[in-house]
């Protein structure tokens, strides 16, 4: 397809093809040519993929806005909805599963085909029947569990990994199916979904949601997504546990994250504590735990580097040996430095634990530990 | 003077006048024309001031590099010095006092003449005799105490404000006098100086300095500056109390500071805790206090804004009414929004407490409290 043909099919705010297509980059994978939008532009979401040979589109997944206060945040965000659906926001890796050139592929947020996630999505979802029936839909899913190449949040009853479909979208428009239709469809095809916390009146949802969040927080789970019935309007809100865990992770690799990453999580804590912690002693206790999430992981990392160790993100993956090799090849394309920490066989599968080394953190901390100066 | 004449007199790394002078801006004050360098460039420090009418130079004060670990930081920073001077770093407002067109003026770090600080410097230093004897020297001093228009750190025995001369420099080269010469000269003219913690062998200074810092920390004081005998090479190191106080201040006005301001102070805590807190319980206690420094001031500010209050930096100044008016006029030149909190007479002086309102913090927090979303 030429640019004009693509342009006519896409729901973009750009005035002419050149304005849009200058932002796409060309990548090859699996014998196909993908045009990928690496940032949200002109009304199209980041990770939008156009398949040259087949004319197929995989829409990007939109970023979900966030509120920092529940009341009046929920009400203000849904001024017109009669009711809103509250679902759990899972802490994993967001992928879009679409049939491309006849086979199901899993695309990362940035529009890459991850071979490992693709294989796991096929194993866990068996989506062939779904795509036979609905070739124009894509599945938006979260790969969760302790054994994924990208995240490692623990969930009870998930020993390795699992997948949860949280959205189903039309491939050309990118529009979601209505919440009820999507939940029905997932049940019909046997796709597991995130826990559902019911429908609520937006005017009174904040109080109901507060209870849901208290339970999620106690279980160290991430938070919730609230959606209008159409599925199109959605907003998220996260738990204290999630903020603290993310800060602990970020400060364990302090030079790997943008300053904004750290700041935004600290500010979330501020607004949530101001809204929810009425008791001064609870507030103080929360402040102390926040401090522990920041300082203890940072000191642990500095100590490790002082002892000559490397630091980074550790992940475990499992599968047949070729699949693991394909994953490592895929990760190395991003110029990551990988260290193999453990490589063993278990029940005929290869179980690999590897570290994505964090070079900025190692280098900066080494420099300061050697007496390097900060020029201010 | 024309640019070429200035250029020939300045010790700059620029190749030709235009390269340097494009970075200067012209300001008028007290009937004089000042060419001011607002950022460090071509070997000249930020705040360098050239006085058009008189041909006088006021060199900028260099930024002092910082080490994050004492051992081997101190040793590495002074590989050749036989001994280093350790002096207290005071928490106040850095000004350069120079005689310009016959009268002593106090220049801020950015090269502005502050009328209030100028008047206080004249009152507190009586520098006329010094400048009569040494017209080619400038005094680098810290205005400290609870009553200054810029800082408000408390020191025992300072009820209002005081000034401490921590450096004396040659006005054309910007070079400092040697530490011993400077301390002698200050004694001779009756200028008070920062506390002096002796001369130390750089190879063993880290341990000695650790004890000094423990005392300073217990008294909530800022830290130390270490200098080679010539005064030219210097490096700073700050206390836990200073990091926590600065974080508490910054998180009380979270949208007023760059993300780097917050991050740098958190990282200082990480390195210092890794080096100095050997006991896990002390480390945990420190982490908890860090968390309290972050969350409690932020929640207090959010609560205040929710209650319709403004927030900002509060300062108290004291003096004759014209002096206070001149200060307010000076501050308003920077487009600051000032709120008068208290305005009274005491012993014939005007005592004014005012707030520099922090508009970004008020606006952002208001927006989120009204249910505004964060687009991620």
TrEMBL record, chains A, B:
GO terms for molecular function: ligase activity. Keywords: Ligase. Residues 83-237 form the RNA ligase domain. The keyword Cell wall biogenesis/degradation does not apply. It holds the Pfam family RNA_ligase. Residues 250-372 form the RNA ligase Pab1020 C-terminal domain. It comes from the Archaea. This is RNA ligase. It comes from Halapricum salinum.
């Amino acid at each position: 397809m030429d640019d004009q043909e693509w342009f006519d099919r896409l729901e973009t705010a750009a005035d002419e093809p050149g304005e849009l297509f200058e932002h796409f980059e060309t990548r090859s994978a699996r014998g196909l040519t993908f045009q990928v939008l690496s940032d949200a532009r002109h009304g199209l979401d980041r990770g939008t993929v156009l398949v040259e040979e087949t004319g197929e589109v995989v829409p990007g997944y939109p970023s979900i806005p966030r509120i920092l206060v529940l009341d009046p945040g929920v009400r203000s965000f849904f001024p017109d909805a009669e009711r809103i659906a509250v679902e759990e926001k899972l802490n994993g890796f967001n992928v879009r599963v679409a049939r491309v050139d006849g086979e199901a592929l899993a695309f990362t947020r940035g529009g890459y085909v991850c071979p490992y996630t693709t294989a796991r999505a096929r194993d866990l979802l068996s989506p062939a029947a779904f795509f036979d029936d609905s070739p124009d839909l894509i599945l938006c899913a979260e790969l969760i569990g302790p054994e994924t190449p990208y995240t490692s949040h623990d969930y009870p009853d998930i020993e390795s990994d699992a997948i949860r479909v949280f959205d189903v979208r039309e491939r050309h428009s990118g529009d979601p199916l209505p919440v009820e239709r999507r939940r029905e469809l997932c049940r019909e095809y046997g796709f597991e979904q995130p826990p559902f916390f019911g429908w609520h009146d937006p005017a009174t949802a904040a109080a109901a949601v507060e209870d849901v969040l208290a339970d999620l927080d106690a279980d160290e789970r991430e938070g919730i997504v609230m959606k209008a019935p159409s599925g199109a309007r959605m907003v998220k809100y996260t738990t204290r546990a999630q903020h603290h865990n993310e800060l602990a992770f970020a400060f364990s690799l302090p030079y790997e994250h943008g300053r904004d990453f750290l700041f935004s999580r600290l500010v979330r804590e501020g607004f949530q504590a101001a809204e929810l912690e009425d008791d001064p002693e609870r507030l103080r206790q929360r402040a102390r735990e926040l401090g522990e999430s920041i300082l203890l992981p940072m000191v642990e990392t500095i100590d490790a580097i002082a002892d000559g160790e490397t630091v980074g993100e550790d992940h475990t993956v499992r599968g047949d040996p070729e699949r693991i090799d394909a994953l490592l090849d895929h990760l190395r394309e991003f110029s990551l430095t990988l260290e193999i920490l453990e490589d063993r066989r278990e029940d005929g599968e290869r179980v690999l634990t590897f570290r994505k080394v964090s070079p900025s953190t190692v280098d900066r901390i080494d420099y300061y530990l050697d007496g390097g100066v900060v020029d201010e």
